[in-house]
Amino acid sequence: MSGTPHGHTDTPHAPVFTGNIRTRLDALFPSYPTRQACLLPALWMVQEERGWISEPAMAEVAEVLGLTPAYVKGVVTFYTMYHTHPVGRHFIQVCTTSPCNLCGAEAVLKALLRGTGCGELGATSADGRFTVTEVECLGACGFATPIMINDDFIEGVTPERVPGILQGYK
Amino acid sequence: MTDRVSVTIDGAQVSVPKGTSIIEAAKQAGVLIPHYCYHPSLHSPAVCRMCLVEVEKAPKLMPACVTTVTEGQVVHVNSAPARQAREGVLEFLLANHPLDCPICDQAGECELQDYTFQEGRAAGRHDDYPKRYNPVEEFGPDVLYVPNRCILCTRCVRFMEDVAEDGVLNVSERGDRATIGIFPERELDHPWAGNVVDLCPVGSLISKDFLHKARAWDLDRTASVCPGCTQGCNITVDTRDNTVVRLRPRANLDVNRHFMCDEGRMDYRWMNRGDRIEAPLVLEGGRHHAVDWDTALERFGQATRGGSGAAVVLASGRASLESLGWIRRLLARYRVTAAVQVPMGNEAPLAGVPGLALRAERAPNAHGARVLGYDAPWASAVAAAGKAALVVLVDVTLTAAEAAGLAGAGSVVVLGTVEAEAWARAGLVLPVSTMAEEHGTWMNRDGRIQRFQQARAAPGMARPAWWVAVGALEVAGDMADRPTTAAEAFAGLGAHWPVLAGLTYEDLGLSGRLASPPMAEAAR
Amino acid sequence: MLSRHFGDAGARTFDGWVQRGGYAALRKALAMKPEAIIEEVKASGLRGRGGAGFPTGLKWSFMPRGDGKPHYLVCNADESEPGTFKDREIMRWTPHQLLEGCAIAAYAIGAERCYIYIRGEFTEPLRVMQAAVAEAYAQGALGASALGSGTRIDVVLHRGAGAYICGEETAMMNSIEGRRGNPRIKPPFPAQAGLFAMPTTINNVETLASVPHILNRGADWYKGLSLSNPKSTGTKLISVCGHVQRPGNYEVTMGTPMKELLFDMCGGMKPGRTLKAVIPGGSSVPIMTAAEADDCLLDYEGVVARGSMLGSAGMIVMDDSTDLVYQIWRLARFYAHESCAQCTQCREGTAWTTKILERILAGRGKASDIDLLLSLSESMTGKTICVLSDSCAAPIVSGIQKFRSEFDAYLSGARQPALAMA
């Protein structure tokens, strides 16, 4: 049976949608004619809260929105920004699509892999601090090379700037 | 009155109702447009792109499954652009599809094979690029998923979501990484889930029950009806070397559309039982002796000819209309109490098809039997049997207590298949064929009379129960026109049961026919 | 016009926008009949700025009237087309310009609710838009009675989660509905049955941001902004990136010569470099040679006349240091990553062509690979639910047609491999 390689623990899943977070979700319902339409926002809430979206969390979202767990998983795995396993404290996305590629994006990517100690794409550094991934066009092509660290959007990154940038993320 | 639209498909002009898709209109024109994701019982997503056809005046090739016909439309299914498009789709599908044919169950009944032979490229150009690989997954009690063979037609996902209304399957990931997925801790265990194996055009979803059992080209296929319950789903019985190896649903838009339930699907092993009685037996000197049919029928005929008083018939819910009818004819001189044995179970509807369910009454001819007068409550019929002059058992299974209760009966005649305790005292034990071994008809809960057909040879000297009854009648001298075939046996029922009057096997065809006036039962 | 206030932090606030002339157009619109607004936009010649170039007024006129169903406006802020980065600027610097355009459009098409679908990676534009929406409600420009008109106009911000394909209008609707971002088959068309099966219009950020200006200054004025073909009117924000001195967004009048944009406004090539190729419309259009770019006019017809398309006008500029085969491979990889997986040709074709290009770059290509790429590209064109498949084929076909020698150099071994095969 399919299962996630990481993060599948024996500790029971603590519900995400309680208290404040449940209130925030409930406040969204009037904005859409169906509960299903709240799926992407609900998944963002889970990821903001837990750092990633586990299968039990998917099942919880399914129940809250009246969907099946398989359906929710199908949606989660479609969108690349949702993490289905734990990632480093600081999740780094580097654009290497052609416009940035022309402007040295691959060198930036290599510098980040070195600087974070991650070693390879998608891996988390030993100290759990960073995960570096290669992504497609981030929509800042004129300000190459853009990277994202969690929600921070940093433009004009060069290999030289990398050490300084990383220092800001503990 | 519905508007009709006239279209020309590959030179053949047809007139179809407004709103018909090109793919359905083409069927009327005798043209099968190759397709994968389309299915008449599912909502069409037009994703496989196999059914692209050339439509004059349209700027692009159009997917025939979702394009509705317009008046005067001219469609080319086999023009060069359409064939090239199909060749392209096939090549793309084969890019990562493994050459599993030698070990794949679907071989011989595989739509990827079929269309590739028909119009695919002679040689692939994917060369030695490594193919995508994912391990086989167990989706449920019977279903295996082989991701490498999957062509992502999504029929399985759509069936579970829209027809079974049990959304346990999904499409996971994106692009060429996409596969069908199932949520962990969930199984494909819905009572109708086995249909995904039939729906799968390739050998991606396969049945564990059928795994590596037989090659499609070794099978004989017989159109029949499921013996599981009163729904009467139309099926195909697949046999190999006289052994039933698989049951599959057969399309009947009025009964079961394209589906059958898992319980019916898996319940065929009894058809292959080897412990059958193979010769007529007479009780003499406290023991059963095998005799020939002439002797057996002579005995039976004499017994019933001189008979009077009470007779009780306990019949299986699988006995055919022909058998049940002619047995009653045989016992015309008696005061008959007749009952049909109907095991009960839980109902399991297929939510997306109104009127389709695994029915609580697990007997295909329960309704038909009652229409033919087998309407006594079972318990009272069994009780009456203990005091009857003649008891006839037609392939029933009795409990020890029920069997013991026959001790007081005048004489007991068994028309049976598998030996049982109850027969110890039976004067005559006559081997009869099962529904897999004879032609016959049943009436389902909607009053639909449907034919089932012989799929394997009956063992030994077993014969249809109607044939036994007719033979005995002949001895009793009561036969004017003796039916020699099941068709004749059926036609002969109309004289005594008006609901069947004037009907022939030809009238029933292989989709059956509603009795007239309508004879649907109130929900049981 | 659109970019006037880029860089001006004061333009972000409601008051700041009003000071700069904002919300006058909305006030004017709410006093007009919706049909009149549609006619004005039609007359202006405004065409969809997201890439398709469909006449906006005409698209609005497809919406049914008096049908009693809820109508929806969807603002496409998914901006994921490689080379394009203009919509983020509009949202970051002038969120109210966009909101005003959305409100006018919603009113014109009879929609009480507008969903603005912002790609998940645009965290700053999202924050800015959230603040702007809150302000607009607080100031009564949005809500149950927009600007006191009695007309309800609601705006809901919906965050995407990483899928280029959600920029396709029907995929976007599926995404808002909480589904996988799969494009839908058409018919039905969005104006008949779109979001939540209701009549819907989807417009790009730049398109909507243009609307207040048309209302303020009139269709004739907008129509007059046309240097070449009268069917291409107004201004266009061109996102220039790659090998120019000054990459960035440039607002030009339709019909401006590409040469002027690249060599004057953007400062031309880097020192010692010459122009080799341009992909003008975001990456999903044919590659143009320097010669074709030399006398190309920047409007819809002008670029078509030079063998490509204006598209989203995300201009990727490549100088003579560029390994074109490498960049085409990188683009194919992009499309393979973003394919939704519905259509056979796209799902398999994007990945297969990527593999072939990778092999060529690794020095293991075969002479027959060129014909194979062209053959597969043809199978991938015009046969799918959406045009992602065609978009993958475009740079491949145009690259082979116009830069064949670069492919041959790898095939013959004259050029050293750029990649190592695993």
Descriptive notes:
The complex is a heterotrimer of chains A (170), B (524) and C (422). Chain A contains seven helices and four strands, in the order H-H-H-H-E-H-H-E-E-E-H. In chain A, strand 3 and strand 4 form a beta hairpin. Chain A is 37% helix and 11% strand. A four-stranded mixed β-sheet of chain A has the order 2-1-3-4, with helices on one face. Chain B is of the alpha+beta class. In chain B, the strands form seven sheets. Chain B has a seven-stranded mixed β-sheet with strand order 15-14-22-21-20-16-17, sandwiched between helices. A five-stranded mixed β-sheet of chain B has the order 2-1-5-3-4, sandwiched between helices. Chain B has a three-stranded antiparallel β-sheet with strand order 6-7-10. In chain B, strand 23 and strand 24 form a beta hairpin. In chain B, helix 2 packs across helix 3. The mean pLDDT of chain B is 95. Chain C has three domains: 216 residues, 3-Layer(aba) Sandwich (Rossmann fold), CATH 3.40.50.11540; 85 residues, Roll (Ubiquitin-like (UB roll)); 89 residues, de novo design (two linked rop proteins) (Up-down Bundle), CATH 1.20.1440. Chain C has 422 residues and is an alpha/beta fold. Chain C starts with 13 loop residues before the first helix and ends in a 10-residue tail after the last helix.
Helix/strand/pairing class of chain C, anyone?
alpha/beta
Rg for CA atoms of chain A: 18 Å
Low-confidence stretches of chain C: none
Question: Please, what is the oligomeric state?
Answer: heterotrimer
Beta-strand share of residues of chain A: 5-15%
The rounded distance between the terminal residues' Cα atoms of chain C is 51 Å
Q: CATH topology of the largest domain in chain C, which one?
A: Rossmann fold
Average pLDDT figure of chain A: 93
How far is the first residue's CA from the last residue's CA of chain A? 37 Å
- Structure classification of chain A: alpha+beta
Q: In the residues of chain C, how many domains can be counted?
A: 3
The number of strands of chain C is 11
In the CATH scheme, the class of the largest domain in chain A would be: Alpha Beta
Strand order of the largest sheet of chain C: 6-5-11-8-9
Largest two-chain interface: A-C, 43 and 55 residues
Helix content of chain C: 40-55%
What is the CATH top level name of the largest domain in chain C?
Answer: Alpha Beta
